[in-house]
Amino acid sequence: MATDTDIEEGTAFIPKYDADGLITAVVTDAASGELLMVAHMNAQALSRTVETGQAWFFSRSRKQLWKKGESSGHVQRVKELRVDCDQDAIWLKVEQAGAGACHTGRRSCFYRAVPIGTKGEVTLEFIDADKTFDPNAVYKK
Amino acid sequence: MATDTDIEEGTAFIPKYDADGLITAVVTDAASGELLMVAHMNAQALSRTVETGQAWFFSRSRKQLWKKGESSGHVQRVKELRVDCDQDAIWLKVEQAGAGACHTGRRSCFYRAVPIGTKGEVTLEFIDADKTFDPNAVYKK
User: Fold this and answer.
1) How far is it, in rounded angstroms, from Cα A28 to Cα A25?
2) Which of B116, B121, B126 to mutate to test the interface with A (most CBs of A within 10 A)?
3) Which listed residue, of A109, B17, B97, B122, carries a Cα 20 to 30 Å from A60's Cα?
């Protein structure tokens, strides 16, 4: 059994999956540093990502392994992969192919701000929300 | 019941919590863009963060609400808060007080890289791993 010191200060890669067998994956643009998306990986998605240098995830809604860009062509080439202190989160710095990472047609999934200092009902504000591609065309719905 | 369009293209804030009542929170440095940490929020942590502009989380290990920096003094002032397309992840751009965000004594929790292109056993590589503060002193263990 790995100790906290093994996990936090060691060189052994001991990813900690949650009860559903998933680990959180944060994806940023390797060039701009922009946060593109947050997704999840199971052990198979993580191994494929490490082995191939292409981003693979596990879709919680579709319950299946998923190569990012398999439908859209917007693949992500991993320039650097990091793990956090307690090894329950992964950071991918990627080269994003195509016009964006978000299935809504935007470069980043984080195109709305939550105003700070509000109590009660919150109204989101669109920021960086211009669509960079037409999702209907790209995903051929 | 909110439709996908409401959730993805609307201005209503409808955070989607997982089965444990948690949502993923990604924290970056507002100035440098560096990824500092990944944590989780329950509804109470999220409301307090929105209302106060200070980062609050929910600790899965300690099972309690947690104001970032309450022991260390390393609080996080939220400069901008964003939500992703399906509203199951939150992005905090913060001004990090003190020497770092990581309980191990480092600025970022992501101080080890996973080499890409490896099959089988993986050996982590320390990167940006210098300690910026002494956790034993700061947390008075």
Assistant:
1) 10
2) B116
3) B122
Q: B90: which chain A residues are within 8 Å (Cβ-Cβ)?
A: 114
Percent of chain B predicted with pLDDT > 90 = 90
Which of B3, B4, B5, B13 best tests the A interface by mutation, with the highest count of A CBs <10 A?
B13
Tell if the CB–CB gap between B13 and A122 is shorter than 8 Å.
yes
- Can you spell out the DSSP letters for B62-115? TTEEEETTTTTS--EEEEEEEE-TTS-EEEEEEEE-SS-S-TTSSS-S--EE--
Question: What are the pLDDT digits (tens) for A75-117?
Answer: 999 999 999 999 999 999 999 999 999 999 999 999 999 999 9
The model scores a pTM over 0.90: yes
